[in-house]
Amino acid sequence: MKPESSEERETDRLEAFSDGVFAFAITLLVLGLKDPTSGSSVSLFQGLLGEWPTFFAFVTSFTTILLMWMNHHNMFNYIRRVDREFMLLNGTLLLFITLTPFTTLLVASHILSSDANTAAVVYAGEFFLLAIAWNILWRYASSGHRLLGKDIAPNQVRTITRQYWVAPLFYSLALVVAFFSALASVVTIILVAAFYAVTATMSE
Amino acid sequence: MKPESSEERETDRLEAFSDGVFAFAITLLVLGLKDPTSGSSVSLFQGLLGEWPTFFAFVTSFTTILLMWMNHHNMFNYIRRVDREFMLLNGTLLLFITLTPFTTLLVASHILSSDANTAAVVYAGEFFLLAIAWNILWRYASSGHRLLGKDIAPNQVRTITRQYWVAPLFYSLALVVAFFSALASVVTIILVAAFYAVTATMSE
Amino acid sequence: MKPESSEERETDRLEAFSDGVFAFAITLLVLGLKDPTSGSSVSLFQGLLGEWPTFFAFVTSFTTILLMWMNHHNMFNYIRRVDREFMLLNGTLLLFITLTPFTTLLVASHILSSDANTAAVVYAGEFFLLAIAWNILWRYASSGHRLLGKDIAPNQVRTITRQYWVAPLFYSLALVVAFFSALASVVTIILVAAFYAVTATMSE
Amino acid sequence: MKPESSEERETDRLEAFSDGVFAFAITLLVLGLKDPTSGSSVSLFQGLLGEWPTFFAFVTSFTTILLMWMNHHNMFNYIRRVDREFMLLNGTLLLFITLTPFTTLLVASHILSSDANTAAVVYAGEFFLLAIAWNILWRYASSGHRLLGKDIAPNQVRTITRQYWVAPLFYSLALVVAFFSALASVVTIILVAAFYAVTATMSE
Question: Contact C48/B118, CB-based, under 8 Å?
Answer without folding.
Answer: yes
